[in-house]
Amino acid sequence: MSHGNGQAHTQTHAHVDKVLEKGGPFTDEYFQAGKDVKKFLREQCKVLIIGAGGLGCEIVANLALTGFSDLHIIDMDTIDVSNLNRQFLFRSSDVGKSKAVAAADFVMKRIPNVKVTAHHNKIQDFGDDFYMQFNLVVCGLDSVEARRWINATLYNMVDDDNPESLKPLIDGGTEGFKGQSRVILPTISSCYECSLDMLTPPTTFPICTIANTPRLPEHCIEWASVLEWPKVFPSKKLDNDDPDHIEWLLNKSLTRATEFNIEGVNWSLVQGVVKNIIPSVASTNAIIAASCCNEAFKIATTTAAYLNNYMMFIGNEGVFTYTFEHQKRESCVVCGGETMDLEVKDEMIVEDLLEILKQKAEFQVRKPSLSNDQGNIYLQYPPQLEEYTRQNLSKSLSDYKGQTILVTDANLPFKLSLRLV
Amino acid sequence: MIKIWSMKKEAENGQKKKPKTSAAQLRVQKDITELELPSTMSTNFPNPSDLLNFELIIQPDEGMYKGGSFKFTFNISNNYPHEAPKVKLTQKIYHPNLDHQGNVCLNILREDWKPVLNLNALVVGLQYLFLEPNAEDPLNKDAANDLLRDRNQFKSWVAASMSGKPVKGEPYDYVLAR
Ligand SMILES: [Zn+2]
């Protein structure tokens, strides 16, 4: 793959230059060949890579070799010995180090003129100001929760008065021999949350099976973690990252497995079950990362049409890909529902707002509940919460001017975003 | 990036910076304010500004568990509705589908949970456990066997256990409604 000297790097540029110096039959109408686009790619475009695991290692190396030179990579994890088989930027001497730092150092050492800034952090450690500095975000995560967070954050950052506030999110994901890559243009295309119903929820087993009729090694492990742990340590929370805790679960599960003649309980399975780890395959990661980086390149340079908007890859039997346009969901928690400005007079109070909403025929709203980012403003139900929030009904709407209030009601697809002006 | 930026210029849809309510939080707001609780059920929020942690009290008005008051805790993670809420009974009771630690055997709480389900579905499912205890998927195997063997005997044991009397030497919590 990568080359260790400057000459090879120039050669890499030469290949990329071929598509940047003139158009072709599939070139996008907005494409402008020449030095500006090269300059944007190689000097100006700033890309954030989220995740420095199996996908992230591939993504950061690919982007650097494509010619992006200002990369940031963020990951909260440290390197475990079990990562070394597929997270190819790490060596055994890196075990225990920050994934982001090790990946950044490796890429900078091997590829000249690339700056990779590492952040050994959670994505939630940063706010809008941090994310606003990037042109593109490429995600190689295995966590649904983290993806939902970044998706909502980028969506909420979009400001119509500033086109550059729209940060395309390229999301890659793999599960064994399957994977997908998708291009999310916040507020324009469907978002990650739109497809939440399509995901398989984390594998769980019926609790009665775990308790009484275990048949699989996983049943024994869940018995130990879900039922036995809280019974033996009622006030101690199970810590998936504590080797002593895993050891305890392993011993318990082994005893249970012996009792029911079940084979296959071992340390890595225990870890896999409690952390809900899905087996990761290096070749799938490479394919999905390549697709994500290809999209990043096309979006940054406008050389060719980018993915619209979802590509799934299935490599279990043969190789199959399917590309389709995933549609926005009207009932999406993040991007669904209308956004509108509502003009309010200074003397109006929150109670008046409820009346205005109920009178708007287009919404058919009957029992609206209101909240903003500070918390709940008024909740219609249950009685305890209604009573608790009732005090806010007499608050002046001028206190909320310039803010967005989220309205939910059984008659709305999901929500309505109201900006009080 | 030129194309994306020009697309944004064309697609004016009144977007301004939005509040940072998490998707899970907002979904819970919707679920809770749209709950349809019958008179036999009520909720209690120990901290009314925290919608992610609350109690559900069920007081069945029919069936073998009539007269009891059962308190469940709901713990909802920031990954809701991808992950189901964690639900536990706070009392030790004699019931085939609940164990002595308060774990509940209800399929939609675990293996059959889907993001399209909501809190209302869970609440209805929990209520049903008291109307129709199910001996087929036992969590308390002993209680399940008792129910299969002799329904009337089981019924009187349920009544005894609810008033805090031991059943077959096993002590239970007093759960009768006051
Ligand atoms: Zn959406």
From TrEMBL, chain A:
Q: Where is the active site?
A: 208
Q: Does the keyword Transport apply?
A: no
* SMART domains, alphabetized: E2_bind (SM01181)
E.C. number: 6.2.1.64
Pfam families of this UniProt entry?
E2_bind, ThiF
Q: Does the keyword Ligase apply?
A: yes
Question: Quick one: signal sequence residues?
Answer: none
The role this protein plays is: Catalytic subunit of the dimeric E1 enzyme, which activates NEDD8.
Name under which the protein is recorded: NEDD8-activating enzyme E1 catalytic subunit
Automatic annotation (TrEMBL), chain B:
Q: CDD domains annotated for this entry? A: UBCc_UBE2F_UBE2M
Please give the InterPro entries that the UniProt record associates with this protein.
Ub_conjugating_enzyme, UBC, UBQ-conjugating_AS, UBQ-conjugating_enzyme/RWD
Q: Which residues form the UBC core domain?
A: 23-167
Q: Does the keyword ATP-binding apply?
A: yes
Q: Where is this region: Disordered?
A: 1-24
Pfam families the UniProt entry points to: UQ_con
Annotated GO molecular function terms are: ATP binding; NEDD8 conjugating enzyme activity
What is the active site of this protein?
105
Which family does the record assign? Answer: Belongs to the ubiquitin-conjugating enzyme family.
| Listed name of the protein | NEDD8-conjugating enzyme UBC12
Q: Which organism is it from?
A: Wallemia ichthyophaga (strain EXF-994 / CBS 113033)
Cite the source lineage: Eukaryota, Fungi, Dikarya, Basidiomycota, Wallemiomycotina
